[in-house]
Amino acid sequence: MNLVPLKLVTIVAESLLEKKLVEEIKRLGAKGYTIVPARGEGSRGVRSVDWEGQNIRLETIVSEEVALKILERLQEAYFPHYAVIAYVENVFVVRGEKYV
After folding, report:
1. DSSP string spanning 7-76?
2. pTM of the predicted model, to two decimals?
3. Which residue in 63, 53, 51 sits closest to 83, CA to CA?
4. 99 DSSP 8-state letter
5. CA 93 vs CA 5, 10, 39: distances in Å
6. Are 28 and 69 within 8 A, CB to CB?
7. What angle do CA 17, 22, 28 make, to 5 degrees?
8. How far is CA 61 from CA 44, 46, 73, in A?
9. Order of strands across the sheet with 4-14?
């Protein structure tokens, strides 16, 4: 089996950003993504009321070049204004052509 090394970019953000984030990652080269509801506690504390909305966890598997573009865009446009975190992991996938 041939495994292809790629990057898994995970973004945890306010759900109101879902549409914008999906547009951004696709514009920067992501071929697909997965979104699930997320909750937890971080530097901004725990959300205590429903009207603030839920968080989402957006994951995409991309090349290193695309991963860096996504992180740069998040740093530039989202980190200063929204409750957003992001991290990158090394992954190995089968059918690597689906992601690049």
Report:
1. EEEEEEEEGGGHHHHHHHHHHTT----EEEEE---BTTB----GGG--EEEEEEEE-HHHHHHHHHHHHH
2. 0.90
3. 53
4. T
5. 7, 16, 27
6. yes
7. 125
8. 27, 28, 16
9. 34-38, 55-62, 4-14, 85-93
CA–CA dist 21, 37 (Å, integer): 15
Dump pLDDT digits (tens) for 36-90.
999 888 776 666 545 557 899 999 999 999 999 999 999 999 999 998 999 999 9
- The residues near 57 (Cβ < 8 Å, ≥ 6 apart) are 10, 11, 12, 35, 36, 37, 38
Nearest-angstrom CA–CA distance, 16 and 96:
31
**Look-up of token digits 């695309």:** 66
Structure tokens at 14: 């306010």
Q: State whether residue 87 is helix, strand or coil.
A: strand
